[in-house]
Amino acid sequence: MTRLTILEYPDPRLRTKAAPVATVDAGIRQLIDDLLETMYASKGVGLAATQVDRHVRVLVADVSEEKNQPLAFVNPEVLAREDVGTMQEGCLSVPGFWEDVDRAHKVRVRALGRDGKPFELDAEGLLAVCIQHEMDHLEGKLFVDYLSELKRTRIRKKLEKEQRQRSADGVRPRAPAL
Ligand code: GNR
Ligand code: NI
Predict the structure, then answer these.
(1) How far is it, in rounded angstroms, from Cα 161 to Cα 14?
(2) Ligand closest to CA 62
(3) How many Å apart are CA 39 and CA 29, to the nearest integer?
(4) Residue 177's pLDDT is what?
(5) 99 included as an active-site residue
(6) From 37, 89, 124, 134, the catalytic residue
């Protein structure tokens, strides 16, 4: 397993639309394992392939307390959504910022698993929100897109400044912390 580098806003690669996976082969299984390792190391509850510059429709999540319930979704689709509500969201690609976003708090999702078999899942609460947040990544969309232009610009400028300082210092990109 390999810990991958997470792209940070406003990196234009985060705007790439991911392509469907044709076959869940060894390469996709490897990507799932690397996404999980990267997500756990970064203390995230989800991670999309887009965030590690792999533009295929794969995402992982684990919202369990013990961090022992990894989930993988290949070619995910939302079949139904209900109970729209507000939740504070963060993103490993937008480190240090948490803002309210309105989304469905219940979703039924269909996807292929790590074994290549189709499954359906009813998700609620944080998992439901997380799956939608990750599916947005696969479309090149970020939670900051739901904020006012003023907030988004403030966030962009602050992250650009941090990124400039990091490269001027010759410092390795820090491990993203939420
Ligand atoms: O770790 C994460 N926490 C989180 C909290 C609320 C809503 C969405 C998320 S996803 C985020 C990890 C991440 O950036 N996934 O793309
Ligand atoms: Ni994110």
Answers:
(1) 18
(2) 1
(3) 15
(4) 59
(5) no
(6) 134
